Known about the structure:
20% strand, Rossmann fold, Dihydrodipicolinate Reductase, domain 2, globular, disordered N terminus, alpha/beta, 33% helix, 4-stranded mixed β-sheet, 2 domains
Amino acid sequence: MIEIVAMGKKINVAIAGVGNCASALVQGIHYYNSNSSSKDSVGLTSFDLGGYEPGDINFVAAFDIAEAKVGKDLSEAVLSPPNNAIQIVDVPHTGIKVQKGNVLDGAGRHFSEVVKLSDKTHVEVYDVLRETHTDILINYLPVGSREASRYYAEKCLEAGVCFINAIPVFISSDSNWQKRFVEKNVPCAGDDVMSQLGATVVHKTLAKLWVDRGVLIDETYQLNIGGDMDFYNMLDEERLEDKRVSKTSAVQAMIPYDVPMRIGPSDYVNFLHNDKVCYIYMKGRFFGKVPLELDVKLRVPDAYNSSGVMIDAIRGAKIALDRNISGPLESISAYCFKHPPVQMSYSNAKSNFIDFIDGKKER
Length: 363
């Protein structure tokens, strides 16, 4: 049994990329904090996780590159276009101004067509992280932002800040980055946040079910469409390579043999706004090699689908900081992300995550 150490209650969090996912997270923290008396835990593993509640998450800094967001209070920026996630609460003034981040490859071709970049000089992220006593930085940059993601990871290493990678750029699952985080005594988690009930977790769970029930999978696909900036940005096909690898590997890891599959974002449909529609198809054979097929359609407001997962990831990462654990957080990553250092079935990942929180598992 690992000794459980109760540290400071506040979890100081910085955000890189104030898009729809950041909007849902900021609104969600305020929602659960406002309902703390009822201990409303719908959407969370638990209202109290290892001694931390959602209201203990304290935003201290935010970075973006859009003119519509830079310089605004975080409470305003999360609702600024092109964000189109639904509003569930009125977030009060936070006193946190969104600062200009380093652009690098954070603005793709399609992204730049509709988002005017701020002309302000980018801030020194290392200095901001140190001055604000940031515990954890969440990477919410657009898909395909490889250089920019690595830049923020570097700043976290320099500042001694835990890095949570919500997008499909391989850092926590990359052995070279893992070694560097261990050497700097800094934890990291990721990569590519998994939705609470989204395309990947449904698809991998179905694949595991078929395998466990002795059904041979012959072929499968997963197609996704949506109407927010994430899907518009992914019209740049060259930015999609890591996304396809991340989603495909999560499903393939559940099947102990090669299966023809096609998984990934498919198209942008503007009138869907922040809704995401997923189509999953599976074809296989069961008893006597008799064929069967399965078709699933899932429609969800996309931004909120990962917010509860991220609240759990943040609290788990803070517990790792409290215990002075460095390097990739395997249990948190397997439970909360699509492309973790170690792939697990959903049930095993959740069990390991709870064991880690309870101090029964080292990482």
